[in-house]
C-alpha cells in the first residue's frame, strides 16, 4: 500500500514514469488521483 501512495506522488512530479508504472501496477490509479 505504501508503494501505491508513493507512486501517486511520483505521478504528479513525473507523469511519464507514473503512467508506465501505473499501467504495469494498477491502471485504476489515475482514476483515484482525480
TrEMBL record:
Species this protein is from: Corchorus olitorius
Superkingdom of origin organism: Eukaryota
Region (Disordered): 1-34
Protein name: Uncharacterized protein
Compositional bias of kind Basic and acidic residues: 20-34
Basic residues bias (residue ranges): 1-11
Amino acid at each position: 500500500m505504501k508503494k501505491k501512495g508513493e507512486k501517486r506522488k511520483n505521478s504528479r512530479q513525473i507523469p511519464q514514469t507514473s503512467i508506465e508504472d501505473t499501467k504495469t501496477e494498477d491502471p485504476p490509479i489515475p482514476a483515484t488521483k482525480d
